[in-house]
């Protein structure tokens, strides 16, 4: 009996120590977060209970719909301190966006930070990919991907970018012959997916229109699993046990299975081609990754690589359709380059009106509005002298960085010459993240988007369908709600 009381006392004592430790830790975090403003949660129509439970998730969730209310709210939250605090459920996190703070946090050693466990649960199908690796494992895996995205390799992909864009221009012009406006999103997505498969993975994707639509639907379904939810029903549906028995969960499971089957086909086909320059073959033969790890990484590259470029191209076409004079200026610029013997690959790497325009698209329509939050594994001292304690969660606010009036003059206005006429501070323009974790495929992305835009403008003229309302919405990436509809006709000097 004495042993029982002793063990019970010891258990209570250890529990009390744990609670005391957590209380002190929370006090330290609370004191640190008080150095930054916390925006008001929700609006008058939101109940107090809803605000207490969900926190700023209410406001973020307004990004996913037919209005841009969530982004308007985020713009209002930007402060001169370059960071502010938000709360998702009970977890607080620091949203960072001043160039100095961004540089500090994104260059912390990989051993000092770890990804938020809550977000790992949301992206559970990708947890064995490089996206969620930590420390030495992350560094080792990333080294495998870097050679495939260096400029020398991207130059080899240029023919795929150009031929794919030529094919897209033909399809757009054919669709535009009816005189009706064309929904461009799916055609652009088909281009970016096929190009990525052929260039990076060495796979020729030959799909029927029905198969292409099904694949597109599967990608959308998977993307929807990653969006932020504000209703209790949606959040409960993310619990694996409950998701398994819901219609939504079954649809998601089927979409993941279809895409995993596609990845398995890619791996099997790549093994037969035996080309070391193809990423899928290289990962199977030259790394120690398991098949599941390779599949997760191929899925990640396929999903992120084609979806982000698709969004950038669609938004670029939207802005071009609003500005016929800009279309004319870009065509004249490209013609002048060609007259000097400069080919398209060289042109898209140069500083030009085209490069400035594409950068402004990527600033104004931040394809990935934020990066997965990370948590400090030990305390660090910030450049301003503040000590960020162990347990601090921070999130890189790409949208906030690009709308920060301290970094940009009139950031709410779209200015295609902004990056020609102004000096932009380092780490103020971060569409591909920043620091050590900057997207490994950023050169691939920039080169493809610029090549596609230059090629399409050679053949096509774009005019906006003003009867079709466009708003920004976010699923996995920033997309136009209900897509973009354009009137498309042959460029007059090519007709």
Automatic annotation (TrEMBL):
SUPFAM superfamilies: Cytochrome P450. InterPro entries: Cyt_P450 (IPR001128), Cyt_P450_CS (IPR017972), Cyt_P450_E_grp-I (IPR002401), Cyt_P450_sf (IPR036396), Cytochrome_P450_Monoox (IPR050196). Keywords: Heme, Iron, Metal-binding, Monooxygenase, Oxidoreductase. It holds the Pfam family p450. Gene3D superfamilies: Cytochrome P450. Belongs to the cytochrome P450 family. This is Oidioi.mRNA.OKI2018_I69.chr2.g4549.t1.cds.
